[in-house]
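Z., the sequence and structure:
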Amino acid sequence: MIAMLAAAAAIAGLLAGLLGIGGGIIMTPVLFQIFVWQDAAQDWRMHMAVATSLAIIAPTTLSSARAHTRLGSVDKKLARLWVPAVAIGAVMGAILARFLSSEVLMIVFAGFALLMAVKMLLPLDQYRIGGDVPRGSLGTIAPVLIGGLASLMGIGGSTFTVPYLTLFGMPVHRALGTAALVGSLVSIVGAIGFMLSGWSVETNLPMMLGFVNVPAVLLVAPIAVFVAPFGAKLAHKMKRRTLSVLFGGFLILTAARLISSLI
């Protein structure tokens, strides 16, 4: 289990910097499987996986955001508009998750993984729906939704933010950097929300802070943080198409694994 977590941490950190989609898409299903092996409370396994994933990717996305900031690929004006809206959405998502069953969370995660797989596998990067990202009061709707959905699934806001920003014509490297900054906020606020909402829940595992498994965070987070800057640098040097196809295939396998556990 330790080797599995370490490998997942390295991949999650690399992808957090490289694709700006958040390492949670890797960590959540891996953590869920480990909690199954540890015989954690069945009703809360997915909640624990989501919460622990958020706690792990919080420092990872911060590391990635710092690396992208040094490379000049963060839209700071847009980030200032999005920060409070994303925070509100992340709190709402963490609260809502407390009242959903583990099965519902698994279905939501698997469905999103399949949608992301389609996005990664098909050449859709050239499509645009606008010439500039919406600003002002209307511009806060998307970050609230992004914060809520990302917190609900433990994947960090970057997963939604990158495709959203590129649909409005933002250059992909600038979208990656901005998404990393937004994702770090979702992860931090979401993790705290899950700590509080799961404080009185019995999970059958020791060393828990609410729904967050402390040993997993202490093991995985340092590895992911160390690797994330390398992913950010690599993003500015390599073609993304091959990696996108491989990652899309991984998402399909992840969704199939979660769906099979429900049958």
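The mean pLDDT is 80. The longest helix spans residues 45-70.

Let me know what you think.
H.
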